[in-house]
Amino acid sequence: MENVSIEDRSESINSLQSTVRKLENALSQMTQNGSSTTLVKKRLKAVSIGLSMLEHVWNKKPHQFTKEELAEARDTITRLFPSIENSYAKSKAGSPQKTLLERRMRALELAIQAIDNSEMDL
């Protein structure tokens, strides 16, 4: 985690902030439509925890997550990868979509590392 460049740190935090906003918007729309929101809520919580853990590791911001919350977030984030990788494989080389997905995957990988490191400290 210490070898991550300032640029990668910034891109990762921005990527997860963007992902949180997208999930919040999806949750709002699904709530209005009366759709089931269980999965979106779970993903929102997991990505929010991942973002908090990156900020904890890199910016020394405190966190108050339990070992169980961290483990659940890690599992949920890990389960996001197949669909992201599938979208990545379908996107065109050099496209903004491909760049966004690359950054999102990198950010989520770093979030998992941050969660793993923090779980050891608990």
TrEMBL record:
Highest taxon of source: Bacteria
Where in this chain does the entry annotate a coiled-coil region?
6-33
Keywords, A to Z? Coiled coil
- For this entry, the protein name equals Group-specific protein
Q: Native species of this protein?
A: Paenibacillus soyae
